[in-house]
Specification:
Shape: globular
CATH architecture: Alpha-Beta Complex
Oligomer: single chain
CATH topology: Spore Coat Polysaccharide Biosynthesis Protein SpsA, Chain A
Helix content: 25-40%
Order of helices and strands: EHEHEHEEHEEHEHHEEHHHHHHE
Distance between the termini: 32 Å
Radius of gyration: 19 Å
Structural class: alpha/beta
Number of strands: 11
Strand content: 5-15%
Length: 362
């Protein structure tokens, strides 16, 4: 039987990119797919677009990890694929990832990403990603077996920005195999700027000490893996010396911002983290301030052009199957509750879902 994949997309004011993202998910060639969008109080058109495309639209927060956990809690698939709202999937991404995971008997699957957008610093990020995408020590999984996520507590809500790395380190410690798929995800990062990157890394850095305490040696291992990747791809870097120099400058700024954020987090008590890597902070803890959130979301000024509006699609159920799937979703047995803070909305059914067969891929 074809394995059902639950694609979870956390959103917040993603009006520039959300249409492109959700259309690309709906255009997947994998026949058994459900789309869950978890929105964190968007003030733009994001929620309306999510309701039009998603099988299930939820409200949740306060941050991305809690949003993902809410989606995982409602997922009915064997696999969960988590996608950010500024990403665009090639039509065969999910198919290639599932087949790679099944062939390797893996628990998780990493999917290569390509940064796209105007400007010099975005070009630097794109080259950096091309050098890092096949480095074994940096294979952050994007498709993970649902049971593993639920059994281990999902994403760490005590982290923001490094939760993907934390999941990777947890899987490595558990001996959970991670395969590498050969699909491609476009990451529409817009026009990156050094001040914007610094603000985001400062915000992410507030949880860096907690991450280090939960996973001793992880930061050193990641630094070594990045250096190894740079050495393996030295010819590619030397072929674009100006961009390579830009990567060095960009990384220096980001590392300084991470360090400043870590010191600020220690001063404010944000770096305490869990007692162990399996522990998570209560979802009732205070959300980040609006000022902090704005720092983490101001590094891009442009996204991909919006796609034409799709026909309205509605769904009613927290147990959904994909647009081309005949598989019946699993039953309603109680699932372990992950760390979230949320409310959900089940929409009334007004007719059959209608989605385009193909999404734009640039």
């Amino acid at each position: 039987m074809t394995a059902l994949v639950s694609v979870v997309v956390p959103t917040r004011d993603a009006g520039r990119t959300i249409e492109t993202c959700l259309r690309s998910i709906r255009a997947q060639t994998w026949p058994a797919l459900e789309l869950i969008v978890v929105d964190n109080g968007s003030s733009d058109a994001t929620w309306a677009v999510a309701r039009r495309h998603a099988d299930l639209a939820l409200r949740g927060g306060p941050e991305r990890s809690a949003q993902r956990n809410l989606g995982i809690e409602h997922a009915t698939g064997e696999w969960v694929c988590y996608v950010d709202a500024d990403m665009e999937l090639a039509p065969d991404v999910v198919e290639r990832a599932v087949l790679a995971g099944q062939a390797a008997g893996a628990v998780g699957v990493a999917i290569p990403e390509e940064s796209v957008g105007p400007g010099f610093w975005t070009r630097c990020r794109a080259l950096e990603r091309r050098c890092l995408r096949d480095e074994p020590g940096l294979l952050w999984p994007r498709l993970v077996r649902t049971r593993y996520l639920r059994d281990t507590g999902g994403f760490a809500v005590w982290l923001t920005g490094t939760e993907d790395a934390e999941l990777h380190r947890r899987m490595v410690a558990d001996g959970a195999a991670i395969a590498l798929a050969d699909g491609l995800i476009l990451h529409h990062e817009g026009r990156l700027t050094l001040p914007g990157l610094a603000r985001k890394r400062f915000y992410y850095g507030r949880g860096l000490l907690a991450y280090r305490r939960a996973h001793p040696g992880a930061l050193t291992a990641q630094a070594r893996a990045a250096a190894h990747a740079a050495w393996r791809h030295r010819r590619r870097l030397l072929a674009e010396p100006v961009v390579a120099a830009g990567i060095a400058v960009m990384r220096t700024v980001e590392l300084a911002a991470y360090a400043a954020g870590a010191m600020a987090g220690r001063h404010d008590g944000d770096g305490q983290g869990p007692a162990s890597s399996r522990a998570t902070r209560s979802a009732s803890s205070a959300p980040a301030s609006s000022e902090d959130r704005s720092r983490a979301r101001t590094d891009t000024v442009a996204g991909p052009p919006a796609s034409p509006a799709a026909p309205t699609a509605t769904a009613e159920r927290p147990l959904a199957t994909g647009k081309n799937s005949s598989r019946v979703a699993p039953g309603t047995s109680r699932r372990p509750r992950l760390d979230t803070s949320s409310e959900s909305e089940n929409r009334p059914t007004t007719g059959p879902s209608t989605h385009p067969n193909r999404g734009d891929h640039t």
